[in-house]
Amino acid sequence: MATTTIPGVARTRGTTVGTGRERALWREWVGALDRPLTSYYLILGTAVLLIALGLVMVLSSTMVKSINETGSSFSLFQKQLVSAAVGLPLMILASHMPQQVFRLIGYPAMIVSAALLLLTVFQGVEVNGATRWLDIGGLVVQPSEPAKLAFVLWGAHILARKDELKELTEWRHLLFPLLPGCGLLVLLVLLGSNLSTALVFLVTFLGLLWVIGAPGKLFVAMFGLVLGLAVIAIAIEPYRMARVTALFDPTADPLGDNMQSLHGLYALGTGGILGVGIGASREKWGFLPFAESDFVFAIIGEEFGLIGTVLVLALFGVLGYAGLRVASRVKEPFPRLAAFAIVTWIMGQTMINIGAVIGLLPVTGVPLPLVSYGGSSLITTMVALGVLLSLAKTEPQAQRTLAARGPGRAQRALSWLGLENGTAPATGRGGTPSTGRAATPRAPRTAARRRGRTKATYDSGPIPAGDRSRRNRRR
Description:
Elements: H1 7-33, H2 38-70, H3 75-95, H4 99-104, H5 106-123, E1 125-127, E2 130-136, E3 139-141, H6 144-164, H7 171-175, H8 178-191, H9 195-212, H10 216-235, H11 238-246, H12 259-271, H13 296-329, H14 333-357, H15 375-392, H16 396-405, H17 409-416, H18 447-450, E4 457-458, E5 461-462, H19 470-474
Antiparallel strand pairs: 1-2, 2-3, 4-5
């Protein structure tokens, strides 16, 4: 008898097979995220891509400006390239440092940062009405950038120390000396007319309070304090009030206060879906002020379109996810606090910059991390990512994997300098290292250790050589 196939059943089976394959691929992709060093490679990969994108966009957005100022299309790009070349080895070095080093340099870095910010108030270089830069031997730096990293390391160490001593049961231990330290940096930055950087410090301060588990009432009170300080700082400066009012009527002053925000929106609108092409931006020809720094995201939208901006947002999203993954997986308080604070700083600064470009926030002077032009910002952010890479290695699964591989060249070099790894290798049964290698050289086995019945010595002294067994003589 001939057999017939039912079309509906065949289609159902095919659909089932296809769904099964999709589920298998999904499980495989999710399983890849559970690998021990996933956080490390996600941070490293996104950082490299964002740095490369930043170099490309700095070259594209500064060509016209560089020709007008120096006669060369690559003058500003070369400065950014040198900054990236300086930041890369510092990031690699920081990624191999143990967490004890970061805890030790927290206090000195905080003191030096406060001193440099104070010096900037009196001896700083004023540009466009803001005193944010300091000329040190012909090298112009922005001290507020390294101060962000100093505050992160110092604040994380302070709270971690108090947590280890079980002193975080009262609200005053949560705020002192963290709040006065943050307040000092904010005051020095505000004296240089840099409200946007002050907001980054305050957001990082709130992030530390959040991750340490501050009570809800205390956190709400600190959030209200930060909001109140921001309102007061905006109200006392007329140009800040003009930027805030420009949000409600962007076309009110197209050639004055609203010029930058309007041309930023023009750049985003001109790009469309696919963009006008790399290097073909029209707004960088003197229409959009600070196209290479504050509004580089607008040039990305113009040259790469909506797809380019979404990809940039995706890269920052992956970077934030990887940092939060590190903060949630590590066991010790300092890595958790430092990782969350670094993520809060970088993601908060990213949202402030992009929010200003797309018209959701007032125009500020905050650069887009790793992408905008500026050597101080680029180097500091790269070092911070190096710290985050080092903290990613303290995840329990990452520790076991790295211990199984054995010490690398960098770890051996650090051991020569006396900088031991801050994390102990995982142990297996009986307390032995799970690396398959002996952590310390074994002592020689004696006869008493080999056999419980045999004595290694007489009561009067050692066994004469002639009385030893033949096996012992060979050994």
